[in-house]
């Protein structure tokens, strides 16, 4: 009896987040951003290494792309994105840091029946905080509405709509994503996704991708994915592969 009382007293002194914290949720490797917020007081980093074949004899490598997050409250997180890129076209190559992106994600409400959980990302790319050759002329803001529905205990559906600027023109580009995911077991999840971009005064650019996400423990995740462009540029379909490692502390 006394042992039970002592155990209960010790547990009462431990903050709930220490033993009741949810599993890590990330914005990668798909294009659909999660509605989830990093728990208050926690830091999360999502790293990816990506190869994109953009044309015959031309490719881009992200070495790496990193998204750092810090939970400010249960409804708000701070975000910082850095992309170190290696670009190769024919016999020429260049390396540099793309303009960094800063912003926040706010959760509006949780899922209620058919009403999806809904969050908003507002962020901006800083044109001069980059390698000189990759600097842009304008601030490049981005607004994303994020939605998620739980279909069954194993199936979720995430979808986003997005308006972004590239820092080179004053016209926005629009994006959509649609990504059902399936939990194979307690550690492994898979997804398929359709997404696309509508650049200014151009036709829509449609893609598909798929991947796997493996949970090493509740704070560490690895992933692998690949995507293929359904439309084409100069009769060439782009494609990409990516590997990722994410952690939370």
Key terms for this structure?
twelve-stranded antiparallel barrel, 249 residues, 7% helix, globular, Porin, mainly beta
What would you say this structure looks like, in words?
The protein has a 12-stranded antiparallel barrel with strand order 1-2-3-5-6-7-8-9-10-11-12-13. It has helices at about 1-15, 15-20; strands at about 45-55, 60-75, 75-90, 90-95, 100-110, 115-125, 140-150, 155-165, 175-185, 190-200, 205-215, 220-230, 240-249. It is about 5% helix and about 55% strand. It contains 2 helices and 13 strands; from the N terminus they run ααβββββββββββββ. The radius of gyration is 20 Å and the shape is globular. It has a single domain, classed as Outer membrane protein transport protein (OMPP1/FadL/TodX) (Porin, Beta Barrel). The protein is mainly beta and about 250 residues long.
């Amino acid at each position: 009896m006394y042992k039970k009382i002592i155990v209960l007293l010790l547990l009462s002194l431990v903050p709930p987040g220490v033993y009741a914290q949810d599993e890590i949720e990330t914005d990668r490797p798909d294009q659909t951003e999660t509605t989830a917020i990093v728990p208050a007081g926690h830091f999360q980093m999502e790293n990816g290494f990506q190869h994109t074949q953009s044309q015959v004899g031309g490719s881009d490598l992200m070495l790496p792309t990193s998204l750092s997050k810090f939970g400010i409250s249960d409804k708000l997180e701070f975000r910082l994105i850095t992309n170190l890129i290696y670009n190769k076209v024919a016999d020429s190559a260049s390396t540099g840091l793309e303009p960094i992106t800063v912003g926040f994600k706010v959760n509006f409400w949780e899922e209620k029946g058919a009403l999806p959980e809904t969050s908003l990302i507002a962020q901006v790319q800083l044109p001069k905080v980059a390698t000189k050759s990759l600097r842009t002329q304008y601030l490049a803001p981005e607004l994303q509405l994020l939605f998620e529905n739980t279909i069954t205990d194993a199936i979720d559906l995430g979808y986003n709509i997005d308006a972004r600027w590239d820092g080179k023109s004053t016209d926005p580009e629009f994006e959509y994503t649609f990504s059902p995911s399936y939990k194979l077991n307690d550690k492994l999840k898979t997804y398929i996704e359709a997404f696309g971009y509508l650049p200014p005064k151009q036709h829509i650019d449609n893609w598909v991708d798929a991947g796997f996400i493996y949970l090493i423990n509740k704070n560490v995740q690895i992933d692998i994915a690949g995507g293929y462009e359904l439309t084409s540029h100069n009769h060439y379909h782009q494609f990409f592969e990516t590997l990722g490692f994410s952690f939370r502390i």
